[in-house]
């Protein structure tokens, strides 16, 4: 009787895990649709600057390269956090998550600095269709990074309270890892399509 009860509980937990993973993948698919729509909108208004500043005049690819390096490196450090989690090394997980958070925060700081510079140069989101599409696309990605940082902080607090890495904790980290790597992929598209495509 006890064995059948444990089997039923295990089956219920496994079903709950499957639903959680499926739900997260469904969320990522909706995010793919969102960013695809934003990229399509940007392409529609490419170079529609209404006689105002052009991206070739204002984009600084060196700064964008620094942003890219920070975000891609944060993906690597998150991967190291996941490896540490699988070995149940909670202190190493927290250390790598902290480094990931610093890199992500640095990326956001550079992005906000770029936005401030563009607005100062008269290329704010209200200036033209191009700049409106640019701020919407890049800003939406930045908002996702900010949400990822909050999510990361919440998981770090949970790990500090319960240092023993459980299967549930691993699953939560894995979901955030997928989300973080997804943002890296989106940023590579932004760097290639928005920045390089507008300058070259």
TrEMBL record:
Keyword Transport applies: yes
GO CC terms, sorted: plasma membrane
Domain Heme-copper oxidase subunit III family profile: 1-199
GO biological process, alphabetically ordered: aerobic electron transport chain
A molecular function GO annotation: cytochrome-c oxidase activity
Cellular compartment(s): Cell membrane
Keywords carried by this UniProt record: Cell membrane, Electron transport, Membrane, Oxidoreductase, Transmembrane, Transmembrane helix, Transport
Topology term for the membrane: Multi-pass membrane protein
Transmembrane segments: 21-45, 65-85, 92-110, 130-157, 178-197
Subunit structure comment from the entry: Heterooctamer of two A chains, two B chains, two C chains and two D chains.
Family from the record: Belongs to the cytochrome c oxidase subunit 3 family.
Protein name: Cytochrome bo(3) ubiquinol oxidase subunit 3
Record organism: Caballeronia calidae
Source lineage: Bacteria, Pseudomonadati, Pseudomonadota, Betaproteobacteria, Burkholderiales
């Amino acid at each position: 009787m006890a064995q059948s009860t444990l089997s039923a509980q295990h089956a219920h937990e496994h079903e709950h895990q499957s639903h959680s993973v499926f739900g997260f993948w469904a969320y990522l698919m909706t995010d793919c649709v969102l960013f695809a729509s934003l990229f399509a909108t940007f392409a529609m208004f490419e170079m529609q600057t209404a006689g105002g500043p052009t991206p070739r005049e204002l984009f600084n690819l060196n700064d964008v390269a620094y942003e890219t390096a920070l975000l891609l490196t944060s993906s690597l450090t998150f991967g190291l956090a996941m490896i540490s989690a699988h070995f149940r090394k909670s202190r190493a997980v927290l250390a790598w998550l902290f480094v990931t958070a610093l890199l992500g925060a640095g990326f956001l700081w550079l992005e906000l600095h770029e936005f401030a510079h563009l607005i100062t140069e008269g290329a704010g989101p209200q200036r033209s269709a191009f700049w409106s599409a640019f701020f919407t696309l890049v800003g939406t990605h930045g908002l996702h990074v900010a949400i990822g940082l909050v999510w990361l902080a919440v998981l770090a607090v949970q790990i500090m309270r319960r240092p023993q890495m459980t299967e549930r904790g691993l699953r939560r980290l894995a979901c955030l890892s997928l989300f973080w790597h997804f943002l890296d992929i989106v940023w590579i598209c932004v760097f290639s399509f928005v920045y390089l495509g507008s300058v070259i």
